[in-house]
Specification:
Elements: E1 6-8, H1 12-16, E2 26-31, E3 36-42, E4 48-50, H2 58-80, H3 89-104, H4 106-127, H5 145-155, E5 164-170, E6 178-179, E7 184-186, E8 207-213, E9 216-221, E10 226-228, E11 235-238, H6 240-253, E12 257-260, H7 266-276, E13 286-293, E14 299-306, E15 319-321, H8 335-349, H9 358-363, H10 368-372
Parallel strand pairs: 5-11
Antiparallel strand pairs: 1-4, 2-3, 2-12, 5-9, 6-12, 7-8, 8-9, 10-15, 13-14
């Protein structure tokens, strides 16, 4: 077997943080579809597919480099109680790693192909009505969907630079669990109000939850809408009432598997699954068409993608709302910065910019000072 055949979409080094044995080779596993609990599953055998990123190994190697840098950051958090300072290299590496997990999992691959399939059917049904009867016989998608999803997530990761974050530390009586899709997007301000446009990377009120170990988790949040609880050096204690909600988010977000450490959490995982299994999305993404007047005076259609999301109401005590939405609110968190990043990504895709040249690009943009002033106090 080639050395690079077995390629992991959730890194082994990360799952070892939740290992259940001194050698850090096994982990506790819950298989959602079967309701099956396994007290000792091999970490090496989790979250992988043969040649998932391609047979040439280049993308796998690039992911390995990012994982190596992220592993150092997590060890500093877990062992030394040190969190990255905003906008230094470790902070940007952390954001890149979290963004990569939004694009590289089997769940991300499946979601992208569901989106392509839903839009493709709508467009073909209108452009080629003669094919309408045959559309149910085919599936539309990308064979390399994970590469597309991962590339887009990494390219757009600077959109997340304005988010603040805290490291959550669990109380002794309960710990964090993780899954095969561990990065969770949610929005306790706008999710209850809107069906769409609340969980994009640029959405106002966005929150991103990512467990790092049984005792540590990272919570990114929009500082315009939330105020974190009191803590020290970027660490904030969190108690069972919130840990249960955060663990429920993992159940709602997971594709097939949950992971955790310690037999003492077995009963809690089983209880949470029984309580929240029905909240997991039960349908695929769909496209809704709405007739509308176009600027040229003709009638057209607006196609809107509706992504199913877990039926969970999350209201964390550790993160208080600064205010309640009153009247129309922009759905984009930082419009100037988002537009700069999108323009940069376009330049990279056109081959006119190198992906590492974002600071050079931003410094030359006329709106840079306005865009960056809200989250980089001093850019010198």
């Amino acid at each position: 077997m080639p050395d690079n055949k077995r390629q992991h979409f959730v890194p082994q080094f990360y799952l070892r943080n939740f290992a259940d044995d001194p050698e850090r080779r096994s982990i506790r596993l819950f298989v959602l579809r079967r309701g099956l609990m396994m007290p000792q599953a091999s970490i090496k055998g989790q979250c992988h597919r043969n040649f998932y990123y391609g047979a040439d190994g280049r993308l796998e190697a690039a992911m390995g480099e990012l994982e190596g840098e992220a592993a150092k950051i997590f060890r500093a958090i877990i062992d030394n109680h040190q969190a990255p300072r905003p906008m230094i290299q470790d902070h940007r590496t952390l954001v890149d790693f979290v963004a990569s997990l939004l694009g590289r999992t089997e769940a991300a691959e499946s979601e992208l192909n569901q989106t392509v399939d839903a839009f493709g059917r709508q467009i073909l049904a209108r452009a080629r009505p003669d094919l309408a009867e045959d559309l149910d016989k085919v599936t539309i998608g990308w064979s390399n969907a994970v590469i597309v999803a991962l590339s887009h997530a990494l390219a757009m990761s600077p959109v997340l630079w304005d988010l603040h974050f805290r490291v959550l530390t669990a109380a002794k009586e309960m710990t964090f669990i993780t899954s095969d899709n561990p990065v969770v997007l949610f929005n306790q301000t706008f999710d209850p109000l809107h069906e769409t446009m609340t969980r994009g990377l640029a959405s106002a009120g966005l929150q991103i939850y990512f467990p790092v170990s049984p005792r540590h988790a990272i919570l990114f949040y929009d500082p315009n809408w939330y105020r974190p609880g009191r803590g020290r050096d970027g660490f904030v204690p969190v108690y069972p009432i919130d840990i249960k909600q955060l663990n429920a988010l993992q159940i709602g977000n997971a594709r097939e598997h949950l992971y955790w450490s310690g037999a003492g959490m077995d009963g809690e995982v089983a209880r949470l699954h029984a309580l929240h299994a029905a909240s997991r999305p039960q349908r695929a993404a769909e496209v809704r068409a709405e007739r509308m007047d176009r600027p040229d005076g003709h009638r057209g259609e607006l196609l809107t993608l509706i992504k199913p999301r877990p039926n969970l109401v999350t209201k964390l005590d550790v993160l208080n709302n600064r205010t309640v939405p009153q009247g129309p609110v922009s759905s984009v968190r930082a419009p100037e910065w988002t537009n700069i990043v999108r323009l940069f990504v376009y330049e990279v895709e056109q081959g006119r910019r190198d992906a590492a040249s974002i600071f050079e690009f931003v410094s030359a943009h006329p709106l840079a000072n306005v865009a960056l002033s809200r989250f980089i106090p001093d850019r010198r």
